[in-house]
């Protein structure tokens, strides 16, 4: 601990994002990195995509996050050194460790874990205390109720309790919807804050059948926004849920609801907040993903700041986007409880006159856990901790998610699926949530659940033709690399086990994937039928949950017998700074 | 029960009343301004290619116009029933037609707009795959269009 503290003292230095001022080279002391200069008259704190990680975690940021076309080389599509240079972060600093994959393993030993709700609670309370009564607000961008075995068996109830104690006053959602309408509504009954979503509407059939809605005239299922008084000014928070819930997840969870970006409805609502409600500021609490938010900010007017999530991008400074009505700032606040977004506003009558934004890493070792939150976490975890503490393997390498095309966690899952289900090929979804496990550390069932815990975990084996397999690869690849962000769903490329291919990200759909071959090197044949295993299908499946299949494989001691390697060759992205070691 | 759901029903019914699907019955059409649409365009509905279908229906090509407001999802929630609607500020509208470029037959629907009717059509189209949807509005004898890509995806894999 003493050594770690020295490391922080020497190397911590939050990348300050003072938009109105030139960036200062800071060398803050460990004890003072959370002492923020007073600014403005209102403070909004933002968490997002915590994925129910109650305790501190290791999470390696991506080494591959390619942007193509207009997005090439622009935040969030910068990784490693290119990211450090863009944001002026020193390579040996704690911030370099928090924000990038740069020398991750070395730095993990020096700076320890990040996040944890007890640590977050301490930081939130401190920052709210600093700004004074009636001057602060805490909002969450969703993906709060999913991501751990505990959240999954409790269907998010644990996280509602935690959110109430943390003091979250407004939230929107994504994975929250995958518990289905009844559980969602039951949880929201207990939630002390507001659940906001301007972009969820009853389907025509559901409206006709008088299904429950917040506003049956418009068909809006949830309250679109809330107006909060902060420091004597009126600030509207508008919720934007993940636009593609019924596409990215089984439709059976949300049969009565239709989503979408709903740009036009959003514009109307913002206009009414400005014109009728005479608010002084409009904040969009968004689960669109950063690329979508950047485009939306260029088209929708009247929004001061978009507090963004979904794509898990930890971006230290807001991106200013011009539109017909002025400028909108776009942020994205990372994932897994690693960061707390701090938006300080200088509010005037009818406008925001100045802004300061910081994305603070939640360094667990620098924050004393809040006792009440620590007690709550202990209590909700207690009934399950013993069941899930069994060591099932000791990995001989770093296990992480993220990267556009592959990662060791998913390679392990694919290897296990192929072996246990006797399939030639395995497909695993490109989820971005999930934590990082250090090499040589015991891996428990709880760790495995943190990579796999969803409400549709059933595995399957099916026959697919080579043409069908290529079509799946093309389809998902377009979700990542469509030149128009509104056609991107977020998430990464479907992981393929037993299959290699060449990908040209800036080609058109249908031409990005080529040279598809089996692990032996044989080319995939369009008409041949292959045995394909997978999980997390949007169609109903009956197989054992993926965590049991992977645990069974790991318990047999086989772990990584195959040589790891993504098997994906990239074309046309030489020099792209979205690939570590390039740019 | 609150009275609001009734209002919803009314809205939907009103919306439905403005829609008359050509080909469903022998609706009493006024004489057409343009050559097309005075009888069931059997030939146009059979053609595979979009340009051919447009030509068969209207005899010429439209010009793109921002006065044709085409509302369609970026990504369809269900390719089997994709909600697509058109409104326009153009005067003297006599027909509105929908084309799905890569459906087995490109012409999906064609509506005759009777005199004095609000030129507003909402319908749900079946789409085989990701492709462009084009709406053509025939107004005062001229053709105007708007196009949007609608993605039909296999789904899954959200972050």
Rough shape of chain B? globular
Provide the CATH architecture of the largest domain in chain B.
Sandwich
Highest-level CATH class of the largest domain in chain B? Mainly Beta
Count every beta strand of chain B, where a strand is a DSSP E run of 2 or more residues.
Answer: 8
Structural category of chain B? alpha+beta
What would you say this structure looks like, in words?
The complex is a heterodimer of chains A (583) and B (159). Chain A contains 17 helices and 23 strands. Chain A has helices at residues 2-11, 80-87, 94-99, 104-111, 117-131, 149-153, 157-166, 180-190, 204-208, 245-248, 263-275, 290-299, 371-385, 408-421, 445-452, 466-481, 546-555; strands spanning 42-47, 136-140, 170-171, 194-195, 201-202, 225-230, 233-240, 257-258, 281-286, 305-308, 319-323, 326-332, 339-348, 351-361, 391-393, 425-428, 443-444, 459-465, 495-497, 499-503, 513-518, 529-535, 568-570. The radius of gyration of chain A is 23 Å and the shape is globular. In chain A, 58% of the residues are buried. Chain B has two domains: 1-27; 31-152, Immunoglobulin-like (Sandwich). In chain B, 18% of the residues lie in helices and 32% in strands. Chain B has three helices and eight strands, in the order αααββββββββ. Chain B has helices at 4-17, 42-46, 50-58, and strands at 63-64, 68-71, 82-88, 93-100, 107-112, 120-125, 131-139, 142-150. The longest helix of chain B has 14 residues, at 4-17. Residues 1-36 of chain B have low confidence and may be disordered. Classes of the chains: A alpha/beta (583), B alpha+beta (159).
């Amino acid at each position: 601990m003493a050594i770690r503290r020295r490391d922080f003292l020497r190397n911590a230095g939050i990348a300050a994002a003072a938009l109105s001022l030139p960036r200062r080279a800071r060398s803050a002391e460990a004890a003072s990195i959370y002492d923020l200069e007073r600014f403005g008259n209102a403070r909004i704190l933002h968490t997002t995509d915590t994925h129910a990680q109650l305790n501190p975690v290791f999470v390696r940021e991506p080494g591959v996050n390619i942007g193509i076309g207009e997005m090439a080389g622009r935040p969030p599509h910068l990784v490693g050194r290119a990211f450090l240079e863009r944001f002026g972060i020193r390579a040996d600093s704690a911030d370099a460790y928090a924000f990038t994959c740069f020398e991750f393993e070395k730095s993990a030993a020096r700076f320890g874990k990040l996040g944890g709700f007890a640590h977050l609670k301490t930081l939130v309370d401190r920052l709210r205390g600093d700004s004074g009564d009636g001057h602060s607000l805490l909002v969450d961008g969703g993906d709060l109720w999913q991501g751990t075995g505990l959240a999954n068996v409790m269907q998010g109830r644990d996280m509602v309790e935690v959110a109430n104690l943390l003091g979250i006053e407004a939230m929107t959602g994504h994975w929250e919807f995958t518990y289905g309408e009844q559980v969602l509504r039951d949880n929201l009954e207990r939630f002390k804050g507001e659940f906001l979503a301007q972009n969820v509407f009853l389907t025509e059939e559901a409206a006709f059948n008088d299904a429950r809605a917040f506003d049956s005239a418009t068909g809006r299922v949830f309250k679109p926004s809330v107006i909060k008084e902060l420091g004597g000014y009126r600030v509207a928070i508008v919720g934007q849920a993940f636009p593609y819930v019924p596409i990215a997840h089984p439709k059976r969870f949300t049969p009565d609801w239709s989503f979408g970006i709903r740009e036009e409805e959003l514009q109307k609502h913002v206009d009414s907040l400005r014109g009728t409600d005479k608010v002084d500021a409009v904040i969009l609490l968004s689960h669109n993903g950063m690329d979508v938010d950047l485009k939306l900010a260029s088209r929708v007017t009247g929004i001061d700041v978009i507090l963004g999530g979904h794509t898990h991008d930890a971006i230290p400074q807001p991106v200013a986007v011009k539109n017909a009505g002025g400028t909108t700032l776009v942020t994205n606040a990372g994932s897994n409880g690693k960061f707390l977004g701090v938006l300080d506003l200088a509010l005037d009558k009818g406008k925001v006159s100045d802004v300061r934004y910081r994305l603070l890493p939640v360094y667990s070792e620098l924050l004393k856990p809040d006792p009440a939150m620590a007690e709550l976490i202990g209590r909700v975890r207690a009934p399950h901790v013993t069941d899930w503490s069994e060591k099932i393997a000791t990995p001989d390498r770093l296990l992480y998610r993220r990267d556009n095309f592959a990662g060791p966690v998913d390679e392990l899952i694919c290897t296990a699926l192929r072996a246990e289900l006797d399939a030639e090929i395995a497909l695993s979804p490109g989820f971005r949530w999930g934590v990082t496990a250090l090499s040589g550390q015991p891996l428990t069932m709880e760790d495995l659940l943190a990579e796999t815990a969803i409400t549709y975990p059933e595995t399957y084996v099916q026959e697919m033709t080579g043409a069908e397999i290529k079509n799946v690869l093309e389809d998902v690849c377009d979700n990542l690399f469509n030149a128009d962000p509104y056609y991107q769903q977020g998430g990464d490329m479907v992981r393929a086990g037993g299959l290699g291919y060449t990908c040209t990200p800036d080609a058109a759909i249908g031409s990005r994937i080529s040279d598809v071959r089996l692990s032996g090197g044989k080319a995939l044949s369009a008409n041949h039928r292959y045995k394909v295993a997978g999980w997390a299908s949007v169609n109903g499946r009956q197989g054992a949950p993926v965590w049991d299949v992977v645990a069974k494989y790991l318990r047999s001691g086989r772990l990584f017998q195959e040589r790891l390697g993504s098997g994906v060759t990239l074309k046309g992205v030489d020099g792209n700074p979205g690939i570590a070691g390039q740019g | 029960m609150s009275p609001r759901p009734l209002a919803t029903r009314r809205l939907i019914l009103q919306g439905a009343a403005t829609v008359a699907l050509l080909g469903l019955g022998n609706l009493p059409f006024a004489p057409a301004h343009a050559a097309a649409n005075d009888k069931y365009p059997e030939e146009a509905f059979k053609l595979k290619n979009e340009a051919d279908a447009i030509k068969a229906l209207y005899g010429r090509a439209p010009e793109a116009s921002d006065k044709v407001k085409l509302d369609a999802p970026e990504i369809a929630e269900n390719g089997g029933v994709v909600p697509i609607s058109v409104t326009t500020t153009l005067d003297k509208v006599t027909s509105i037609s929908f084309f799905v470029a890569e459906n087995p037959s490109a012409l999906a629907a064609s509506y005759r707009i009777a005199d004095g009717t609000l030129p507003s059509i909402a319908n749900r189209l079946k789409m085989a795959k990701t492709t462009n949807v084009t709406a053509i509005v025939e107004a005062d004898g001229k053709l105007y269009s708007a196009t949007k890509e609608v993605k039909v995806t296999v789904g899954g894999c959200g972050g």
